[in-house]
Amino acid sequence: MLRELRPDVILTQELCEVCAVAYGEVCNAVRVLDSDATVVSLEPTTLAGVLASIVRVGDLLDVRTRAERMVASLRARIDVVHAATARVPSRPGVLALEWIDPPFFGGHWVPAMIEAAGGRDVFGVAGARSMETTWESVAGAAPDVVVVMPCGLDRARTETELARTDLPEAWWALPAMRSGRVYAVDGSAFFSRPGPRLVDGVEILYEILHPDRVGRRHGESAWRPCRPVRS
User: Fold this and answer.
1) Where are the domains of the chain?
2) In degrees, to the nearest 5, what angle opens at C-alpha 160 toward C-alphas 155 and 45?
3) Which of 48, 16, 162 is nearest to 97 (CA)?
4) How far apart are CA 109 and CA 146, in angstroms?
5) pLDDT in tens, 119-174
6) 89-225, superfamily in CATH?
């Protein structure tokens, strides 16, 4: 198919070899095909980096002005949320659960998304990788809110996986569980992938973290509260 398409530019990534076709595989395919396509690896690790990569693609495709307009629109949406949460009386502690068993907390751009939405990430550091943790550490962090966003899964599949997981005793004692503030989201669409829809993810987090300040704008396919039941 690559031979038939004869692309001028191929976009790939080196951020995660599990989630997408690896950079090395793409380069090997281009070499085998004796193609002169330009191979560009996009690997932003922060929210700002994702926006910058859009402009970079615009440059590659000779549509920089269009890319800049898109980025300006995305920045404006982030700024609206950031301004709305700048003076919130309290920032809830948030656990972004990027995998359930074993538990991984979200990294890269996710901590900045939480901060912009008026939360406080109890584990993640902006720009750093997501990392495996322990349920003992999760209990010690005592998150006020848990947002379950397994990499590559939509909201319905997330709820299925959460329901079938034998969750430890530490889970049931979390403040987020006791107050009913556990949410399943469409991680694949709005949190896992470094693209424009991360801005929707910021808006979704704002709806989740501060429902008293903003009405719901995203439907249940994007997010909804969930309460796992003990087996």
Assistant:
1) 2-82, 89-225
2) 45
3) 162
4) 17
5) 999 998 999 999 999 999 999 999 999 999 999 899 999 999 999 999 999 999 99
6) Nitrogenase molybdenum iron protein domain (3.40.50.1980)
The contacts of residue 20 (CB under 8 Å, 6+ apart) are 12, 13
- pLDDT, tens only, 168-216: 999 999 999 999 999 999 999 999 989 999 999 999 999 999 999 988 9
Contact 89, 109 (CB under 8 A): no
For residues 116 and 73, give the distance between their C-alpha atoms in angstroms, rounded to a whole number: 16
pTM summary value: 0.91
Cα–Cα distance measured from residue 186 to residue 153, given in angstroms and rounded to the nearest whole number:
6
Tally of CB atoms within 10 A around 55:
14
Are 198 and 113 a contacting pair, CB within 8 Å? yes
Task: Give the residue among 221, 146, 137, 141 at the shortest CA–CA distance from 179.
Answer: 146
Q: Is the peptide bond before 102 cis (omega within 30 degrees of 0)?
A: yes
- Cβ distance 103 to 138 under 8 Å? yes
Q: Which residue has the tokens 């948030």?
A: 94
CATH architecture designation of domain 2-82: 3-Layer(aba) Sandwich (3.40)
